[in-house]
């Protein structure tokens, strides 16, 4: 059954579909995929009303095997935009150089020259003249965030970008950025089993009038119950304690989600997404999750979560899942300060 996907206001007057699509799933991080099949999935998402499409300059494999933003995911999104630009709310990101963990090379950049060159490169790859929401993917810690956001604000003034966003920022960084330019959205990992942002970042987003865009709202697929050790070993999660040595213990969370799903007539993925919307309502700010998938049917399933209504008792039981989690959310290849919780 097709779901009518409503729109919602994030911050700074930006309206997007109530659920978005995370483009990273269509790149190599979780195994290679066929570009034509990926494009069909993207078209299906827009057909369903899931028209808030999220990508980044660093998603994909560099064509020459070098370090640096790959851009191949943006090029894939460009094939969708070529026919349907007016239907899509487009978000992309910059700031990760593609050299995380590479000695002698900065993992992030936020200087003015880089901000401008990264934006122009993304516009070329995407085949568009404006980006609806431009995120700082990760900040360069030895440059004041005000400097980076000031350079991003210049892009808004020039009409190359419509709205600004920040990813994995702390509460204080968000407040400092918002004093320079309105921030439409904060993107960080947030789900049933990754809730550290609720302590400080979510309240700060509400304070400055920004919406929240949770990435990995399905726990990188774990919360759906479809993850297997074989699937884990095929992608970037193969070295992550949460997914490897704690795989069996964390199945207790999946069991809880499935139990609520049986009560509501929903899938595990739909329950996890419905919990996020309910949590956003409880905390007083708009929440637009961006689950990614390679399969068109999963797009329809995820959108179907909009029909799910959780009782107070079910919400409370799902809230308790956080107490069962074993293993942290930061990926092992990244430094502790890669995520906001490492700098709070």
TrEMBL record:
The keyword DNA-binding does not apply. Keywords: Oxidoreductase. It holds the Pfam family Aldo_ket_red. GO terms for molecular function: oxidoreductase activity. The keyword ATP-binding does not apply. Residues 18-322 form the NADP-dependent oxidoreductase domain. InterPro entries: Aldo-Keto_reductase, NAD(P)_OxRdtase_dom_sf, NADP_OxRdtase_dom. One of its GO terms (cellular component) is cytoplasm. This is Aldo/keto reductase. It comes from Couchioplanes caeruleus subsp. caeruleus. The lineage of its organism: Bacteria, Bacillati, Actinomycetota, Actinomycetes, Micromonosporales.
């Amino acid at each position: 059954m097709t779901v009518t996907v409503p729109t919602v206001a994030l911050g700074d007057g930006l309206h997007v579909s109530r659920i978005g699509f995370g483009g990273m799933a269509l790149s190599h991080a979780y195994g290679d995929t066929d570009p034509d099949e990926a494009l069909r999935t993207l078209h299906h998402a827009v057909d369903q009303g899931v028209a808030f499409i999220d990508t980044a300059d660093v998603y994909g494999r560099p064509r020459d095997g070098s370090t640096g933003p790959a851009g191949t995911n943006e090029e894939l999104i460009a094939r969708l935009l070529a026919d349907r630009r007016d239907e899509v709310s487009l978000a992309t990101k910059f700031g990760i150089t593609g050299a995380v963990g590479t000695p002698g090379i900065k993992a992030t950049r936020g200087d003015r020259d880089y901000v401008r060159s990264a934006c122009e490169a993304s516009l070329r790859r995407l085949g568009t003249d404006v980006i609806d929401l431009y995120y700082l993917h990760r900040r360069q810690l030895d440059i004041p965030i005000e400097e980076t956001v000031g350079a991003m604000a210049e892009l808004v003034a020039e009409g190359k970008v419509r709205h600004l966003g920040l990813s994995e920022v702390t509460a204080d960084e968000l407040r400092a950025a918002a004093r320079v330019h309105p921030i439409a959205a904060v993107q960080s990992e947030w789900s049933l089993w990754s809730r550290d942002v609720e302590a400080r970042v979510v309240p700060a987003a509400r304070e400055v009038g920004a919406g929240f865009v949770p990435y990995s709202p399905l726990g990188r697929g774990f919360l759906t119950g479809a993850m297997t050790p074989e699937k884990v070993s095929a992608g970037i999660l193969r070295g992550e304690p949460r997914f490897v040595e704690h795989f069996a213990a964390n199945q207790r969370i999946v069991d809880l989600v499935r139990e609520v799903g049986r009560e509501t007539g929903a899938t595990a993925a739909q329950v996890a997404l419905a919990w996020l919307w309910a949590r956003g309502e409880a905390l007083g700010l708009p929440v637009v999750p961006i689950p990614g998938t390679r399969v068109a049917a999963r797009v329809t399933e995820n959108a179907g979560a909009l029909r799910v209504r959780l009782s107070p008792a079910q919400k409370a039981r799902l809230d308790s899942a956080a107490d069962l989690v074993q293993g942290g959310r930061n990926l092992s290849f990244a430094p502790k300060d890669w995520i906001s919780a490492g700098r709070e």
